[in-house]
Write a structure and sequence with these properties.
With 487 residues, the protein is an alpha/beta fold. The chain has two domains: 249 residues, P-loop containing nucleotide triphosphate hydrolases (Rossmann fold, 3-Layer(aba) Sandwich), CATH 3.40.50; 209 residues, Rossmann fold (3-Layer(aba) Sandwich). The chain is built from 15 helices and 27 strands. The strands form six sheets. The chain has a ten-stranded mixed beta sheet. It has a seven-stranded parallel beta sheet with strand order 4-3-5-2-6-7-8, sandwiched between helices. The two termini are 32 Å apart.
């Protein structure tokens, strides 16, 4: 997956727009594992196949499903997360920036339609971080994807309940999934359309061909293996055969114009006083977890992005800072270890003071070694610790971090909203190593701590999104610019 900012407007353009006529649709479901991703992939690919500019979004913290949606739509999938954004204005602005230049926006929800993280200040019974809440904020029609296995006319009771559970939830149609046969489909259609008053826009049959391989943290990222590409083609073919694409387009285009806030999710304009600092970014099969908004934030703050392949590059290119995102280095640990030249160069540059920001998989790469059962592999050796893979998740969910310790990129007192999902933990960690984050929510390293600090390195299990980490991009660019001036 390559960086692509071609469809993102400049800050000036974005701030000047007060309304946006964006065709949009949200795919929600009664519960997780109802088939939302399969249907969304197929819909994006089928609409893109018609020559439309399709902008995919994923609601909630996720890198893996977006890697597939990016492949299907041909545009980088963006993130809409109320917890990161903190308020409706920022969420709408983030959507507006991503929607620019698109013919239709397709948003995949997460969990059940009304499930979500309650945001600060919300009533105890208000899940205002849900997919339904996002739909109401964006005035986006919802297509409810229902897993109909072993279900008959009871589907009408289920759909009716979801229509009426919260006022003004814009459920505009239903897509049936796991339909057994034509007779089953006819019974389901009749019940929904007669008793719920909304159309059925398609019916996906039961099919093993539509399955995407997964492992301990969900689906396998699309970019890991080209042999996974046929799965997108299978979803596209199923969508073209089984979805009412014209009907879905009509519903998406019926969405009203959306009012964009004046701020429109801007970042400060970059300074022309100094040359753009060069920030190296590990991006290859092992390190794939990057939000497009984070890369845009770095560019908006004045950085030039330089991509590094941890498998092939024998040394770092000329960079003023390094950003190593998450991914699955454990899957490729032998290959990463075999590139001793790059590992040694990263360690040497870290010791010399190169600013480095690393998350989760990046933390693992900076450790001494990764241990997984009977296997182990040497990593860069920057941090005085090893990483042990575990059978169960060690952290999974949202994080709230207070910056309490000295570090290269954030001022003390900053509050960061992020997330974590990792099946590993640090072992043999030096007791005197400083940490920068106190966690009021989340596990991180354990004991309410995260954010290891070593020289100009800050690394954590916490994944940050630019919307939930004010000042992150600017802090990294300022430190990189300082490093460049000191060379």
């Amino acid at each position: 997956m390559s960086q692509n900012n071609d469809h993102a407007p400049s800050n000036t353009q974005n701030a000047a727009r007060s309304t946006q006529h964006a065709a949009r649709i949200i795919l929600g479901a009664p519960q997780g594992r109802s088939g939302k991703t399969t249907v969304t992939l197929g819909l994006c690919a089928a609409l893109a196949g018609r020559g439309l500019a399709v902008q995919p979004f994923k609601k909630g913290p996720d890198y893996i499903d977006p890697s597939w949606l990016t492949e299907a739509a041909g545009r980088p999938c963006r993130t809409l997360d109320p917890f990161f954004c903190g308020d409706d204005e920022t969420l709408v602005a983030s959507f507006g920036r991503g929607a620019a230049g698109a013919d239709i926006c397709v948003i995949e929800g997460n969990h059940g339609l009304y499930d979500g993280q309650r945001l600060p200040g919300a009533d105890d019974d208000e899940e205002n971080g849900s997919t339904a809440a996002v739909a109401r904020t964006l005035a986006a029609p919802i297509l409810l994807v229902v897993n109909t296995a072993r279900m008959g006319r009871s589907i009408a009771a289920l759909v009716h309940g979801y229509q009426t559970y919260e006022d003004d939830t814009p459920i505009a149609g239903v897509i049936l999934n796991n339909v057994a046969n034509s007779r089953h489909e006819a019974k389901l259609r009749h019940a929904v359309e007669r008793d719920c008053g909304i159309p059925v826009l398609g019916a996906f049959p039961r099919s093993d061909a539509l399955a995407i391989p997964d492992r301990h943290l969900g689906l396998i990222p699309r970019v890991e293996d080209d042999r996974l590409a046929p799965a997108v083609e299978a979803c596209r073919a199923a969508a073209e055969l089984n979805l009412d694409l014209d009907g879905i387009l009509a519903i998406a285009r019926s969405a009203p114009a959306i009012q964009l806030p004046a701020s429109s999710f801007q970042f400060p304009a970059s300074s022309s006083q100094f040359p753009a600092p060069r920030i190296g970014i590990f991006r290859d099969r092992a390190f794939t977890f990057y939000y497009p908004e984070n890369l845009e934030a770095l560019a908006d703050a004045g950085a030039k992005l330089v991509f590094v392949d941890a498998f092939r590059d024998q040394a770092l290119p000329a960079v003023d800072a390094l950003y190593i995102g998450g991914g699955f280095p454990e899957i490729f640990m032998a290959e990463l270890s075999a590139n001793a030249g790059l590992r040694g160069d990263v360690k040497a540059k870290a010791e010399a003071g190169l600013p480095i920001y690393a998350e989760c998989g990046g933390l693992m790469y900076l450790s001494h070694r990764i241990v997984w059962g009977e296997r182990s592999a040497e990593m860069a050796g920057v941090l005085p610790c090893d990483v042990e893979m575990t059978a169960r998740p060690q952290g999974h969910g949202y994080i709230v971090a207070d910056v309490t310790g000295a570090n290269p990129f954030f001022p003390a007192g900053a509050i960061l909203r992020g997330h974590e999902f990792h099946n590993s933990r640090l072992v043999n960690l030096a007791a005197d190593l400083e940490t920068a984050y106190h966690l009021s929510r989340g596990r991180g390293l354990g004991g309410g701590r995260d954010g290891l600090v070593y020289r100009n390195v800050l690394t954590s299990y916490t994944h940050l999104h630019a919307a939930g980490a004010p000042g992150w991009a600017e802090g990294l660019v300022v430190r990189a610019r300082g490093a460049a001036r000191n060379l």
